[in-house]
Amino acid sequence: HQLSVLLGPLCSAYRAGTLPALLQQLHSACQPSSARNLHLCEGYPSADGRYHSGFYCPRLTDPPAHRYCCRHGDHALKSCCPQLEFESLRRVNLSNVPTPARLRNPLPLLAVGLYGLLVLTLMTLDFLHFCRLNQRRFYSLLSSSRLGKSLLRQEGNRLFQAGDYAAALASYTRALALCAGPPERAVLHRNRAACHLKLEDYASAEADASKAIEADGHDVKALFRRSQALQKLGRPDQAVYDLRRCVSLEPRNKAFQEALHDLGSSMQEKVSLMSCTDSKVEQMFQILLDPKETDTDKKQKAAQNLIVLAREEAGAEKIFQSDGMRLLLRMLDTGREDAMLAALRTLAGLCSGHRSRTMAILAELEAPRVSAMLGVEHEQVSLAACNLLQVMFDALKEGLQRDFRGKEEAVVLDPSKELKLLIGHLLEMLTREGTSAHGHDNTLNLLIKVVPRKSPREPNNSLTLWVIDQGLKKILEVGGTVCEAPGSLPATENSRMSAAVLLSKLYSDLKCDAERENFHRLCEDYVRSWFEGHGLAGKLRAIQTVSCLLQGPSEAGNQVLELEGIMESVLALCASVREVDQLVAVEALIHAADKAKRASFITANGVTLLKNIYKCSGRDSIRIRALVGLCKLGSAGGTDFSMKQFAEGSTLKLAKQCRKWLCNEAIDASTRRWAVEGLAYLTFDADVKEEFVEDKAAVQAMFQLSEDRSVLFAVASTLVNCTNSYDHEEPDPQMLELAKYAKQHVPEQHPKDEPGCVRRRVRKLLAAGVVSALTCMVKSENPAPTNSCRELISRVFLAVVEEAADRGSVVAQGGGKALIPLSLEGTEVGQAKAAQALAKITITSNPEMAFPGERIYEVVRPLVSLLHLHRTGLENFEGLMALTNLAGISERLRQKILKEKAVPMIEGYMFEEHELLRLAATECMCNMAMSTEVQELFLAEGSDRLKLLVLYSGEDDEKLRRAASGTLAMLTSLLPQICGKITQVTAHWLEILQALLLSPNVELQHRGAVIVLNMMAADREIAAKLMESEMLEILSVLAKEECDKPRVAQAAKECLAQAVACGLIKPNVNGE
């Protein structure tokens, strides 16, 4: 009854949903006020049934005075409040209530601590159990790491003794990563220093030797190696100190004594030479500075001696230290051309390869003075100043990349400011009044060499961006100069082309669309500023600038050409009566006709004008340009026989006139060059090609003009067209049918572009001396051909060596020598074409005759480049065939092929599905197997190389069997341990050997007999297996065929004799 009385209200509260609140009230009521903590807000449920966890007042978000827990009604949430609010809410006076102790239940914290201690204990026990189970494995790993260090060091020693210093260095470096003890690290650093010395990396050798000496100051080997490195680095004083320490540590070592004696002698000779040089330098300066000296020969000799002395490091340093700069400045101040030339060339020698000296000379000369010498009227002085600035730029740029050590590091400053200062003065030179025409050309050529990045892989193009911002308009001003107009800048025939090349280089060096948009905007603003508001002269200047842009960055030129009124003004100026207007407009029209869309517009609107200009103009320079314009428009259809821009026979008439101009030596060379430009366009037509190669006088006249750099590209383009050496893909027949069905235009090939006609044209060009002309074009150094021109030359070379009968004459005229630089520099396509031409020559000619001396080793790298996967199958095949010939010549060539990492690529092609590629790779591997490094590859565990050769020896392809079995015969004779591996790589080895011996091909029989003989001599068990099979009968039969197959019979007899020696068989009674 009492229980029901107690639980009744609780059940009613539970049904009403107020049970949590009731329990809370009961709990609060049961506790005395003194026992309650007034600062603690205990957890509680709200009116919506959600439970709220408790907290202690004040919270982090509450003011410090809010230290009491308050709740304003049953439906409100608990919060922290100040003392007055709490007293009014509870209606109590806290001053009369004793302060309760702050009660915090420590049990949860204690439970968490005990739980953490338990987890830590379990983890410790688990770790101890793991160590106990893996104790042996741990010690084995520790011992293997120690063993690995020892093995790597031994491997490095072996590779060093074999002469593979790069691989030895890698082994020592890996061993160094496993070492912890200073003594072992010192030895490895000492060994690395020896490798660096052999690899001629003297700075690294000095660094490694120094680390070894830091660990052990009495290490004589490290001291001696550091002395060798210091001598090569030009620090003999420090080298002497190390050698003296070596002699003091090992007084009886003759090698140290001789090295110290030699170094001392060389230093004494250097001192005596320097003392002798002092007097010579003074005499030379006296002769050159003496105004009373009238002996010209004596002055020239003194100047030449001074220049030669400055090119040597010792002489340059002596001139620099013996007040030479002051005397050289006096020579420049004389104003005499001979003295200025001698001074400038001597300064170039002083600056060459020496950054600190360059910066000191630049500070003494001052940048404005150096750049001003470019603009003098005397051409030789301007060229000498250009060369001096080029040397300075090279030295300063090298300083940005080199790691200087020793004395020079203390005196060298950051050269980036000097670079920009010099380039800024060069840009000012372009528009400075008084600068000569040669000065403009030399300045532009210098900017071409020093501003753009050497490679797109270099991340920083800030110098290019700075030049565009500071000097693009100045470059455009030179490129847009109209020489005949009053007040124009002095310029030569090449000035506009040089400006176009510089603009093209700058544009190609830009990395993103935003940079290119800025370039376009600057060009448009400059052209618009001249085109609007400057009358006819301004329009002429703007159109000339557009021509320059079209010759350089054509994308920017085409965008500027689309400005309103430009094209219309070009056509209008063509009809002008002034010759200068016609000249500028016709050139612009020629360059604007590059795009097919624009060419059709010009054909419709400008052909009549060009014809009238050609017929009516009295100046040859204008007539030839109009003729070239007509040629370019007439060739707009390219090689498509069905696309004729002009009437039948018109292009032949144009070509005839171009040949006439070309052969007329009475006309100046600049006008004749335009005739080559016209032929470069017209030779897309096969009829024009045929007539041109028949005209031997015109061909040879073109070759003579190719000595001028401005016409190189046109000459190369003409030859590419005549030899059809441009890329063209055969169209898919199904796609052709679909195009015809859809009534789409299908390009047609000219009947005279068939392979037979092309071969006849090539022979005629060979007879006219095309190889000699191409060789001279490649050798051109002032300036060197552009990469695009080199690519065209490579295409022509590939075309002329297509026929094996012509390759001998190509080599005899220097074609082989010219192809090597073409295959190493230039565009990727150009290098590939030149390498393929080299491969063709190497396949059919004796490489030692075609590439005499050291040149044969330069051929290896281009040939290896043909093996890369992105090359065509034909290039792969020809590269393998050429390397096969080279690998069979000498061990040194095989080592060169190994160094170029060609063996893995050759192995890859041995797995090719294409029969010819697989055969060529196997033949190449057969010759490479004569090298010890390649032989060891076949002994490597887990490799399928040997298995592949054994299986190929049983293939149906006779040539493949011959190459594979020949390799096996060579390997088994050189490496007896391979004989045992042959029986393990495949279960069909015995059948394959029997098939070789039973082959109708004598060469295969001989190879098989040699393999069997080597296997029997290597292992008696293998010999027993062979004699237990049908091999005994086969060998017995072959041994009797002495008349028909003497070599096979001899090898078979030796096999039987080996079996007798092993006691496996017995001879007959008669001794046979």
UniProtKB/TrEMBL annotation:
Q: Where are the TPR repeats?
A: 220-253
Q: Please list the GO biological process terms of this entry.
A: cell differentiation; muscle organ development; protein folding
Per UniProt, subcellular location reads as: Cytoplasm, Perinuclear region; Nucleus
Please report the stretch or stretches of sequence annotated as the UNC-45/Cro1/She4 central domain.
453-633
Q: Name one GO cellular component term.
A: cytosol
Q: Residue limits of the Shisa N-terminal domain?
A: 41-85
Q: Name one GO molecular function term.
A: Hsp90 protein binding
Top-rank lineage group of the source organism? Eukaryota
The signal peptide here is none
Key words of the record: Acetylation, Chaperone, Cytoplasm, Developmental protein, Differentiation, Myogenesis, Nucleus, Repeat, TPR repeat
Q: How does it assemble?
A: Interacts with PGR isoforms A and B as well as with NR3C1 in the absence of ligand, and with HSP90AB1. Binding to HSP90AB1 involves 2 UNC45A monomers per HSP90AB1 dimer.
Entry's PANTHER family? FI21225P1 (PTHR45994), PROTEIN UNC-45 HOMOLOG A (PTHR45994:SF3)
- Specify the protein name: Protein unc-45 homolog A
Task: State the organism named in the record.
Answer: Terrapene triunguis (Three-toed box turtle)
Gene encoding this polypeptide? UNC45A
